[in-house]
Predict the structure.
Amino acid sequence: MPSTTKNALNKNDQSLFSTTIPSFNLIRLPVVRRLTTLSVSQIYRRMDENTFPRRVLLGPKTAVWLESEILEWVAKRVSERDCELVKNNHLKTYCSE
């Protein structure tokens, strides 16, 4: 195969993967704790209650979380707080009833 064709295939393969496979920022437990300020026991209890993002096991002793899910969880807590403040002051907002 000519080298120009081989290079063209490699470029096509790379663009195919970069558009179909999302990239994830994986974070370990110490980072999850820093972002949420929760203790280890609180994190696992909330996971058991299905009120916290689930971990992803990469191996028998390696667990990670998706950073986007943790940040979304924190943002939801902030939104709930803001909606509660608005409801207590009887203001109209985008918050659901």
In short: The longest strand covers residues 62-66. The two ends are 64 Å apart (CA to CA). The mean pLDDT is 83.
